[in-house]
Amino acid sequence: MAWTKRQLVEEAFTEVGYASYVFDLQAEQIQMALRRLDGMLAQWNASGLRLSYPLPGAPGQSDLDQSSNLPDAADEAVYLNLAIRIAPSLGKVVSVDTKMNAKAAHDRLMALAAQPGEMQMPRTMPAGAGQKRWRYNDDPFVRRPIEPLLAGPDGPIEFT
Length: 160
Known about the structure:
This protein is mostly helical. About 40% of the residues lie in helices and about 0% in strands. It has 4 helices and no strands. The chain has helices spanning about 5-15, 25-45, 75-85, 95-115. Helix 1 (about 5-15) crosses helix 2 (about 25-45), helix 1 packs across helix 3 (about 75-85) and helix 3 (about 75-85) crosses helix 4. The longest helix is centred in the first third of the chain and has 20 residues, at about 25-45. It is elongated. The relative contact order is 0.13.
């Protein structure tokens, strides 16, 4: 089951050094961290790393108790990078280990999300001796490349 936005925010505060059993977090601090979380994941979405995170329509409309819909592989990357983003406003400096772990987790997510584009032969390339000309209207060249069906700015539609 996916973490809630509240759990991600609380884990980020714990990483910064604001453990919930020691510090009572102010409502303003939690809202600030939630806005930064929304902004960070909107930026990741714009850069091509789409994680099914429900982005709010406007700042301040996000619900803390809403499910984040993040895959399990993304949780660590999200709360570690969020900790790096909220630390300066709390007057804290995150450790080098946190920065290294955040970068490594983000790099793993990018590697999981990276899919090479399908390569298609140009229309001017001969089909070769193994191709039966009668299959494709007696055409000696490879068939036209298939253009992917696009779904707007999100990219091609994939059927699984």
